[in-house]
Design brief:
mainly beta
Length: 470
């Protein structure tokens, strides 16, 4: 059972960086050198900036401050930066390579920057705020990528003809309404150098649509939704563009239109749930129901490795769609055999069970897990759950245990995961072996299932406050 925390992504589309610099070597102590990176805005005045510095031989990577002398070992470096002009509006990105030998200086001069103009066609229409972004990346996949975004007309990239760099650029359309409207993001990459500016219209035919139905019940209030992409073709620079974050009050429904490719989705409110990458095709629409009842046990079953038992990567509060997360879970895990406890452990939020207990030999074992989510707003659903796995372990084999995890899926619930009073609710049971402070919520329903296979292995799954009755 693994507790994983993950940070939600940041919404910004990144901006270009690159600039050819001039080295000015001077005498220095043997084996050492220094680098001063001047960062100038579009009026030629020095502005504060952070510069990514990557040594192409030693792979040393660090950030240094612009307009300050920094000691560095002699060698060849890839530089990248992004900064805001003195007017507080212009966004500038640039990057280039430099050889440090003695006292070396180089410059990122925004006066050499060229406009980055990006739009979507056909245009989504009115009622949107727009931003334009760009990122300059080294083609050797070094970590020295810097990016920025700005309002249309305020973003500039410093050209560089070196084929060691490439430019990714994009645009986002965010609805001004906080209660409705679609979100749009489009991006593209220019390889083999950084061009002298960009003027591009990115077609909607290359986008995929994710229709999100976000319910309340297991979560409530305002939630942050993150969408992180890996474009078709696997360009790391384009990946830096394909990040979209937004906030909406639960329950809610909205659509995001993003470049086709692999996307990972997350939702962070009172708790945090997320999932891995899945492919989405251009021109297609995919419906994602998030926060559906029931957040119950899910994930990978335990397994034996020689004479030890590993609890696996299960999750006591897995959303049916975003199956990882549930980081607020606390509880207990216990392993018993022949009436004797072999291992018992209490864990807190974002913690793991700890050791991998030794099993004394082949025989029948029972894993009992309990989980609870405390300190949540009143009325939230799926507040506690438990899982009992009774299985036969063969000490001579390394294998996943022979058992199943049951997932409950109540039908005909509304957007607040409520069943109508007096109605009959059908509960679908899924067999898995893969490794709101809301005054309208009234009575709740708890669910339990016990599954026994032909070998005598059994599993019991329980979820309290699974869904509500209005």
């Amino acid at each position: 059972m693994r507790r994983t925390t993950a940070a939600a992504g940041v919404v910004a589309v990144l901006g270009p960086l690159l600039l050819a610099g001039v080295g000015a070597p001077a005498a220095s102590a043997a084996g050492g050198g220094s680098l001063t990176v001047r960062t100038l805005d579009r009026s030629g005045k020095p502005v504060s900036a952070q510069v990514a510095v990557y040594n192409t031989r030693t792979n040393d990577f660090r950030y240094i401050d612009g307009n300050k002398k920094t000691s560095l070992p002699k060698g060849s470096y890839e530089l990248a930066t992004s900064f805001t002009g003195g007017n507080g509006e212009d966004g500038i990105v640039g990057g280039h390579s430099v050889k440090v030998s003695g006292a070396t200086a180089t410059t990122f001069d925004a006066r050499k920057g060229r406009p980055v103009k990006v739009s979507i066609g056909p245009a989504p229409g009115g009622g949107y705020d727009r931003s334009v972004s760009a990122a300059v990346c080294a083609t050797d996949n070094s970590p020295g990528t810097m990016s920025t975004s700005a309002a249309p007309g305020d973003l500039y990239v410093i050209p560089n003809s070196s084929k060691a760099y490439e430019l990714a650029y994009g645009t986002t359309y965010t609805p001004r309404s906080t209660t409705g409207g679609d979100f749009w993001l489009a991006s593209a990459t220019h390889s083999r150098g950084v061009p002298s500016g960009v003027s591009a219209t990115l077609r909607t035919s290359g986008l995929t649509t994710l229709k999100v139905y976000a319910r309340s019940g297991p979560d409530s209030g305002q939630a942050r939704f993150s969408f992180n992409g890996e474009p078709t073709g696997g360009s790391n620079c384009s990946s830096s563009m394909d990040v979209l974050d937004l906030q909406r009050d639960l329950p809610n429904s909205f659509s995001v239109h993003v470049p086709a490719g692999q996307w990972s989705v997350g939702q962070q409110g009172n708790d945090f749930v997320y999932d891995g990458f899945h492919p989405y095709a251009a021109g297609k629409t995919t419906a994602l129901t998030l926060g559906h009842a029931v957040w119950g046990p899910g994930g990978q079953l335990s397994y034996t490795w020689y004479d030890q038992l590993y609890f696996g990567n299960d999750n006591p509060f897995a959303d049916p769609t975003l199956t990882a997360g549930g980081v607020l879970a606390a509880g207990t895990v216990k392993l018993t055999h022949a009436g004797r406890a072999l291992y018992s452990h209490k864990y807190g939020p974002s913690q793991e069970p700890g050791a991998q207990p030794r099993i004394p030999g082949s025989g029948w074992y029972t894993i009992t897990e309990t989980g609870h989510r405390d300190h949540l707003p009143a009325g939230l659903l799926s507040t506690s759950s438990s899982l009992s796995l009774h299985f036969y372990a063969d000490a001579g084999r390394n294998q996943q245990i022979r058992a199943y995890i049951t997932r409950f899926s109540p039908e005909a619930l509304n957007s607040r995961n409520q069943a109508a009073s007096g109605s009959t609710t059908t509960i679908d049971l899924g067999m898995r072996r893969d490794g709101t402070g809301d005054s309208t919520i009234g009575r709740r329903v708890g669910l339990r299932s016990t599954v026994t296979d032909t070998h005598g292995d059994s599993s019991t799954t329980t979820v309290h406050n699974a869904y509500a009755v209005s």
